[in-house]
Design a protein that fits this description.
Length: 288
């Protein structure tokens, strides 16, 4: 099985400004409990009992993205028992993006790029990528990523899905992973319905695959019924062959342990789709 979305950090090895800021709450809540090292052995302790043997590490706001990528690559080289690829940060709004990507090309573990479009409503709704979403430079950089063999991890909120779809339909050759099921942050009936309609603009694009991950970030005291409409909608709109599981640990460890998360997902996902969602989709998407 493959966990398609998780993070690792060693605060003595790589600087993460948001983890070092002890006074600020984030859109996903109070980060205090996770403002400590979360290493590969911690992650394996969480997920290996459930049959995981591989994973995708996602960049997580390092001050120096290349330093983070090299640190992850070292972990991979020193843990041959664990099959891991990584998604790195590169600024798609810059004309020098191609030169920046050259810094990652000697790392065989790099599978793709993530630059967050929009995290949450309010103060974290915008980003430089969102501000430049219609820029010819962004479009050209996405095309370049595809030519280089990289995928793109897309994190955004429902309110900007239509804008994003207009961009990504122009690069049908680029593999796009929609992070956190598109961040359905409003869990009222009206909010879920809004997300469902907005999601169709992305699920209609055959090059977009959905990560069912991070569902606790906007519903901390969640129950299985809170996740049911989200998971069922993802399966309905994308199909199991375009859905993959991600734990979003250690961030989602703020709301549950790995055992509870897996029990919930395995209950809500039909057994006939387990092979695809917990392994095959991610294996093919990230070429593990």
């Amino acid at each position: 099985m493959i966990d398609a979305h998780h993070h690792l950090w060693d605060l003595s090895a790589v600087s993460y400004p948001w983890l070092e800021d002890k006074s600020k709450k984030r859109f996903f809540g109070d980060p205090t409990p996770i403002q400590k090292n979360y290493l590969i052995q911690d992650f394996k302790k969480d997920c290996k009992p459930h049959g995981f043997y591989a994973s995708i590490h996602i960049q997580v706001g390092a001050k120096e993205p290349v330093k983070e990528a090299n640190w992850i690559d070292d972990i991979i080289n020193n843990h041959p028992d664990w099959n891991m690829k990584q998604v790195v940060f590169c600024d798609l709004t810059k004309s020098k993006m191609r030169a920046e990507m050259e810094k990652f090309e000697n790392l065989p573990s790099v599978a793709g790029v993530r630059q967050i479009l929009s995290r949450a409503p309010g103060n974290e709704a915008g980003s430089s990528l969102l501000d430049n979403i219609a820029s010819p430079i962004v479009l050209q950089n996405l095309k370049t990523l595809s030519k280089l063999g990289y995928s793109f991890d897309l994190q955004l909120i429902p309110e900007v899905m239509k804008q994003a779809s207009l961009l990504f339909e122009k690069v049908p050759e680029l593999k796009v992973a929609l992070c956190h099921a598109g961040s359905p942050h409003d869990r009222t009936i009206e909010g879920i319905n809004y997300w469902k309609k907005a999601l169709k603009s992305l699920s209609s694009l055959s090059n977009v695959t959905c990560k069912i991950s991070g569902l606790g970030m906007f519903k901390h005291n969640w129950t299985i019924e809170d996740f049911r409409p989200i998971i069922e909608t993802c399966l309905d709109q994308f199909g199991a062959e375009r859905c993959m599981f991600g734990s979003n640990f250690p961030v989602d460890s703020l709301y549950s342990d790995y055992n509870t998360l897996m029990r919930t997902f395995k209950t809500l996902i039909p057994k006939s789709s387990h092979e695809l969602i917990f392994k095959k989709t991610a294996r093919e998407f990230y070429a593990i």
